UniProtKB/TrEMBL annotation, chain A:
It comes from the Bacteria. Transmembrane segments: none annotated. InterPro entries: Alkaline_phosphatase_core_sf, DUF1501, TAT_signal. It holds the Pfam family DUF1501. It comes from Sphingobacterium deserti. This is Sulfatase.
UniProtKB/TrEMBL annotation, chain B:
Keywords: Membrane, Transmembrane, Transmembrane helix. The lineage of its organism: Bacteria, Pseudomonadati, Bacteroidota, Sphingobacteriia, Sphingobacteriales. Pfam families: DUF2231 (PF09990), PSCyt1 (PF07635). Coiled coil: none annotated. SUPFAM superfamilies: RNI-like. It comes from the Bacteria. Gene3D superfamilies: Ribonuclease Inhibitor. InterPro entries: Cyt_c_Planctomycete-type, DUF2231_TM, LRR_dom_sf. The keyword Transmembrane helix applies. This is Uncharacterized protein. The keyword Transmembrane helix applies. The chain crosses the membrane at residues 17-35, 47-70, 82-101, 121-139.
Amino acid sequence: MKDLSKLLNEAQQQQLHAVTRRHFLKECVAGIGSIALGGLLGNCGGGVQRADGAFDLNALNPLVPKSPHFPGKAKSVIYLHMAGAPSQLELFDYKPALHKLHNQPCPESLLAGKKFAFIRGVPKMLGPQATFAQYGQSGAWVSDHLPHFSKVVDEVSFLKAVHTDQFNHGPAQLFMHTGNARLGRPSIGSWVTYGLGSENSNLPGFVVLTSGGKTPDAGKSVWGSGFLPSVYQGVQCRSKGDPVLYIADPDGIGRDLKRSAIDAINEVNKEEYKTFKDPETLSRIAQYEMAYKMQVAVPEVMDIAKEPAYIHELYGTQPGKESFANNCLLARKLVEQGVRFVQLFDWGWDSHGTNPTDSIDLGFRNKCREIDRPMTALIMDLKQRGLLDETLVVWGGEFGRTPMQENRDNSDMPFLGRDHHTDAYTIWMAGGGIRNGVSYGETDEIGFTGVSGRASVHDVHATMLHLLGFDHEKFTYEFQGRPFRLTDVEGNLIQAIV
Amino acid sequence: MMFLEELALFIGRWHPLLVHLPIGMLILAFAMAVVDRYRKQLEYFSAIRFTLLLGSVAAIVACITGYFLSRNGGYEADVLGYHKWLGVAVAVISVVTFLLYRAPTHAKIWIQVLRSQRLMFLLIVVILVGVAGHFGGTLTHGEGYMKDVLPTALKSTLGIAPPKEGVFTLTNAQEAVVYQDIIQPILKQRCQSCHGEKKREGGLALHNQQAMLQGGDGGAVLVKGDTVKSELYARLVLPEGHEKRMPPSGRSPITMDQIKLISWWIAAGADFERKGKELPQSKEILTILTKLENGHQEETSLYAALPAAPPLPKDKIQAWQARGIKIMSIAADNNMVMVNAVNYAQFSNKDLEDLLAIKDNIVQLKIGRTAVTNAGMITVAKFPVLHRLHLEYTAVTDEGLLHLQRLKKVTYINLVGTKVTQQALIHLQKIPTLTHLYAFNTQLRETETGEGNSKIRVDTGNYVLPYLPSDSVIF
């Protein structure tokens, strides 16, 4: 109690400071008036329109479920990001003509005016290092690197000619996840949780799972909340050790004591909010509450050991390990529990050919094997549980890879590899209202650039938001005097796949 | 005569430019007259007179050019009528007002009375200018060009509802005349506000067979059997933002299914008489046609065929939310709700009964892993607009499902991990709307009842990914 009154005292002092400042501001009536008017108008324009005041009742909980612009088909998203950028030419974009050009010098016309991350001079073409066949009723091309995945292609729609404008991992990952190559914008998961809230109040709305090893080059900003209140940022959970760092109570601190501590802190914060109306204060209150609930709910949902053996067999999971497979299973469990956005990051896809691990014919194939079974299992498992039609699964990297063999600094590489490529790469989506078995977009004969159905990163975002019930052009957040969008001033819905 | 016709057209085209002159001048005259009236020390009188003179002449010129422009046609007759006569009224009254603004001289008494009211006349002129101008804008930009783009916040304050889209349905798409019953309604909904009987933008009208075959200023729009050469189709699939894409940006877009139907009809020869069954149908077209039959609009407007739901009782919702029962409206400005008890495992049959208070609102009920039982299914059957029902991992058995037969709208039922058996399918098959049934981890094994003809897609799961030798090859 003594501590509490001390805290309250401090809060009161803060308030007094504020009063003197207000006193001054009160003298400038016109100024205050216009500031207030700006605030009012800002409130009218920005943010998500709610259906009913009733859903706003819990102003203290920014994660309370909210309504989209129109009824969305998808209720949650699982985004599988292959950091490092996998080669589309060895997985989905079958280019027989590239075989014939194998080891021949790249025509100058392809190189004119282009800039590559590492390729210098005139590189040689590199034929597809995989065997392709068509699968399913849709006849989708898949390489022999993904033998399991080829069984579910009819659940999937491919975007074969996605393009970006960033050829380095960090900026490209930021672009892919925040719609902008520079730091400071909210990630798509943050936008979605901001717009829809979370259905489960005991779990974070936006969970991030990494396969261990390297974290994305762009750092945690790829799941950051940018200018949105920080309560919408992704919560990174680990599949090894404590799922969330410091989630367990320290020795000697019981649940009750923790509760009263949080109550006291929240009381102070509420006073603070009444005075300053800073939304970050609300975030803080919500986060304390969430953390308290998460202490029970998260270890439960993050524990895959209790899953039956046939599920482990399906996914190829090994409890206690940090792996993409475990994360896929976790993603399904989280979505089942009403988590809105689950972001997975796998790593090691940067196949330049500098060493065996990073080579197209060796390490790359190991990576393919690692994801093939789990991601296929994820689609199957979501389907058999009746979750796939309301869960959007997205798979892709931050850019594609060149049809040319990399020649770093104009010299031959020790292993086969491909450089970063922005003009064309493949992303696939499944579930959540995506059409079954569509292949949209085509690249030229060697897979260098898209010739039809090109889709930009903004288009992909617009389509994802559409499936969740948002018109990407109206889904805005007022910041520094202008309404911001995930798709900035671009993006078109890719109608062919929805 | 040709020359005069062309000259008339040329003169007509000046209307949108010249029409702004009287607007500005008359308003200026009015502004000066008001100042003149209340601040006597200023000497505006001659300026008012001069401005009024110019304004009246400009109004007359605007009327004449407007008349020539209207002769070219392509405008909606009603609106054109209002605009025309209001314009004439402006011209006439402004001339009268000009005559009233004369230096005080001796005149008949009634003229003097009118003169004392001349400010009123000017006010009327200005109001008429505003109204006529608005109709003029409507002619150029289409109905609702201002109202539709009001900021959303203002719209809801003013109580302007977003325009409702008509849904057309068919009883039997195979027996329907494709042009008359399928294509024409689409054209009516999407195209004819600009390319119709009244307004023929680009000389094109699509309201009947003759007009469609005739095409527009740029020639034919319909090439039988060739979608690519048929502008009627080709314009629909241009990239978004393309200048020539139809419907133009700002108008309500045409749906993908509707585009496909148009393409299907053109590809099959754009015949005006034949019935659905007489045209070749791909699987995709068949699906779209079936959707039309069911009265399902395109899936993007999920639940659109439902009547508007009644308002929600705020206090009750608050109480439910506080208990952990999430009530989420499916979209902004929509009272249809999804109910989710993921944070309230104690959810019981009693809670279901409570929810009957909003039974006309609930389209989705997620009560998997809760304490509901068979008895609760009697209550569930009373939700008239329920579309999706989650009962996974509950104690519900075949017996309870028997009650669900009375559900009228349900398309999705999730029974994963329940104790239901093959009998469940026999019960649920009687629900005509049901299309998706999930029965993984149950005793239900067969996806067919043996009676056949079931439209239900049953997913019993148990998927496996057999071990492949390549699974253990490490490179």
